[in-house]
Specification:
Strand content: 15-25%
CATH class of the largest domain: Alpha Beta
Distance between the termini: 42 Å
Shape: globular
Number of helices: 10
CATH superfamily of the largest domain: Spore Coat Polysaccharide Biosynthesis Protein SpsA, Chain A
CATH topology of the largest domain: Spore Coat Polysaccharide Biosynthesis Protein SpsA, Chain A
Radius of gyration: 19 Å
Number of strands: 13
CATH architecture of the largest domain: Alpha-Beta Complex
Order of helices and strands: EHEHEHEEHEEEHEEEEHHEHHH
Number of domains: 2
Largest sheet: 10 strands, mixed
């Protein structure tokens, strides 16, 4: 089997069904022949997700549903799906994406032809077709500082290259990796519940001598309507940045990033109090707590 696609569902069954249908429309022949499979992992949604997904899956070949007994997060959920993958390559695909061309297959074949590439990310786009930043630079102290200032929105650290090229890391919403490499690296770090798991895995891959590349010639719409809210995202990004620095960087760098995170949180809490913005106060108090 060439490719296993893994996607997670958490209380968003219609998003997942739309994603499944978009993939199957482009690759029906490959699904029918067993060249491609899709593995959906439901992270204990506790709603009608499993029932609706089972009904939809019954219409398609080589589509599997795995139900986790509890919400284990993005990293472990992906690892659960990957454990059942039979493909030479694994594509981790967000369920809030729509596949609009056959670029996924082109990515897999490109990796076959260039075996030095261990990880290959692809270009994701907004509904209007404008590109979303789909690669990033590792969070060195300088890049982390720029990230905390919001500079990734200006294309300073997070970018969308227009040609195939080697990069530091690629976004987990469209993340293809050699199956053997994924298993050799131990998969995503399950201590990271959600957010930064893609960067952390690419960082370990680089330390192990593997190369990460970016592939721009693909049409994937990313709705960015996943299963988390903005407060949740900010809190976990705070937590995971500290975890990354404790795991991979020096103690001095860890203290530096911790000071930056604390300073930003205190600043925004005070701004929230002055302006009456309860969201800022609540969110960044929670970020400090973790």
């Amino acid at each position: 089997m060439l490719l296993s696609i893994v996607t997670l569902n958490y209380k968003k069954p219609q998003l997942t069904i739309d994603c499944l249908r978009s993939v199957y429309t482009q690759f029906e022949k490959e699904f029918e022949s067993g060249e491609i499979e899709l593995i959906i992992v439901d992270n204990a949604s506790g709603d009608e997700s499993v029932q609706l997904l089972k009904k939809e899956i019954s219409k398609h070949k080589h589509v599997e549903l795995i139900t986790n007994p509890q919400n284990v997060g993005f990293s472990k959920g992906c690892n659960v799906g990957a454990a059942s993958a039979k493909g030479k390559f694994i594509l981790f695909l967000n369920n809030d994406t729509l596949v609009r061309d056959r670029g996924i297959s082109a990515m897999a074949h490109y990796m076959q032809e260039h075996q030095e590439i261990a990880i290959l990310g692809g270009q994701m786009s907004n509904d209007d077709g404008t590109p979303q930043p789909s690669t990033g630079e590792f969070y060195t102290p300088l890049n982390a500082f720029l990230f905390l200032l919001g500079m990734q929105k200006l294309g300073i650290s997070d970018k969308s290259p227009t040609k195939i090229m080697e990069v530091d890391w690629v976004k987990g919403g469209l993340f293809m990796i050699q199956s053997d490499v994924f298993r050799n690296l131990g998969g995503f770090d399950e201590q990271i519940f959600m957010y930064t798991e893609d960067m952390e895995l690419c960082y370990r891959a680089k330390l192990a001598g593997y190369k990460t590349y970016f592939y721009p010639d693909i049409s994937i719409i990313h709705k960015e309507q996943g299963s988390s809210n903005r407060t949740f995202a900010i809190v976990y990004i705070y937590k995971n940045l500290l975890y990354f620095y404790k795991k991979h960087r020096t103690y001095q760098e860890y203290l530096f990033i911790k000071s930056l995170l604390l300073a930003k949180a205190i600043l925004l809490i005070n701004i929230g109090k002055i302006t009456g913005n309860k969201y800022l106060v609540t969110t960044y108090k929670e970020a400090i707590r973790v």
